[in-house]
Amino acid sequence: MRKIKNVSTYVILSIVSLISVFPLYWMISAATNNSTDILGGRLIFGTNLMNNLTNLLEQQNVGRAFGNSLMFSTILSVLSLVVCSIAGYGFEIYHDRAKDRLMGILLLAMMVPFAATLIPLFKMFTDLNLQSTWIAYVLPTISTPFLIMLFRQSARSFPKDIIEAARIDGLSEIRIFATIFVPTMKSTYAAAMTVTFMNAWNNYLWPKVIMMSEKSQTMPMLVTNLSVGYSIDYGVLMLGVLICSLPTGILFLVLQKSFANGIVGAVKG
Amino acid sequence: MKKKIVALLVSAVMTLSLLACGGGKETSGDSGDDSSKGQELTVWCWDAFNVDAMKKAGEIYTAKNPDVKINVVETVSADIQTLVQTYAMSNNLDALPDIFLMDDQVFAKYLQNYPEVFAELTNSGIPFSDFASAKVANSVRDGKNYGVPYDSNTVIACYRTDYLSEAGYTIKDLTDITWDQFITIGEDVLAKTGMPMLTNVQGEPDLLNMILQSAGISVFDEKGNISLVNNDGLVEAMNVYMELVEKGILQEQTDWSGYQGSINNGNVVGTINGSWICATIMSTDQAEQEGNWAVTNMPKLNDYPGATNYSAQGGSTWAIASSCDNYDLAVDFFKETWASSTEFYDSILTSLGAIATYLPAASSDAYNEVSAYFGNEAIYSKIVSFGGKIPTINKGIYWSEEKEALGVALANVMSGKLDLETAIKEAQSTVEFNIGM
Prior knowledge:
Helices cover 75% and strands 0% of the residues of chain A. Chain A is built from 14 helices and no strands.
């Protein structure tokens, strides 16, 4: 009976994973085919990769866009992790009624769509003459209610006894955070990093509005340029998409293990 | 090992951040530097087709004026609209480029809603009478000009002559006909070759709008209000469209890629669209299609009064931003290229297939040259001659809203969800709601 259950679980899981992996496979195989073959529904790998690459490099400044995306996303994710983890830690460890209420308000802010704040934000940044700078790119999304909540939740599971013990040993609050909390929360950081980096990398509307210089074009903008037109070269487009999705894919693979590792660290009696 | 990886990652990140600080400052320095901007015109437009045409104009201009730089930045049409709106609403017009391209379907709407964005060109010296008048009218408000017309939106019907002859027809049988005649031929071709005559993107009422304009049917009244209900012409046009789909003569595709694919892979006999579709048709690498295409006019709406075989679809117009520091330079650039140089129009026609609305260009030799791809016929002069016969209709400023609502109405009727009358009523109230009437 159990065996049958197992088999059916595997069958269902295999089908579901096939369905979710298929678009990725198609993206990769399409990058090696020409437009006509892709539109004709060819699924196997072709020989047009180099041709697509030459066309892509000819049409678009991929190096610049890739470098910009990598730079902006890295700065944004690192700063965001620092700010939000401190905030989340603070909300939990030093919590009182007022802070809990503030947290509630923060969570409400999650419901405000970005488009609604676009124009006031844009006005603020241009008034400060910050348009087309990396500060303008990262600042609006540096602290997100979601990340703060994530760190607050993980700080909740963090044993308070350790903090008490450290305080008795004379460690300052900052050092407790930096030397005890941070190392034990690696998996949370890894998860947060993946989510933040992905969001930062895929960010489109705000960068498009605030980064006015062509020099600050990012990968999603480049892919958009490829995907619109009277005659779209789907081979080139899919290669662009492939290149665009590489960094988030690699980051996920690198940090994947940390998800599973769970929270390291234990309290000794 | 793990620690090392983490350490490596952290140091990489820090180096990058440091680099970024330097890079960031550099960018901000650039945008604040006005001295270099003095002789540069920044242009926004979308698609390699438009980008290359603008670059060509830039080359011609800079050859005579070496100290001027034309900087073309590829920006998709939807983004140009978003950015114009954002910058206008936040009173920050300086962020706009000197020149930008705008889709004809939304030009009038933006001109009405954000007039402060557009620089007036009436007395700039650009000879507007040299452009097709129906096209110029699109960028005129209160008798003043705000745009330089660009590509032609003349509707053409393109068919594969090899498929037609397989079924015993020639391109002549499809010229100057009505939709009823077209449906008869289409059924026959479908039976003999298994090919649908036409292809279209599902939920996009482009073809419907082309039929409407070809018969001079307006969906807006004289005051610019939407009038879909009690519009006999609309009902007749929708019935034609539905008959085409029901009989399998028109194959609907899920999106543009399906549409492009059906043409490029030879799965359909032809398509009806703006003349810019020639670029799409020629973008296939299937050699057997070369020489097997022919261009003619579209079918007309049977015995509807005022029905013709000519219509318009798509197209775009250049605008100079009111914030442009170099207004005189921008105007001079247009006067020297887009509004005077037939040499320029010849070159974008031959290299890109870009058909203009600049009338003097039509008499040049390039327009009378035959196209090997289209069965050795002088299709360009043919398209220009079609252009003069398009009925003018009352277009109003809310095309895109109307287009969207009609698309939904079509989909609802086709799927059997609503009957025609209810769907049209619903479309009317949707448009009224969206434009805040």
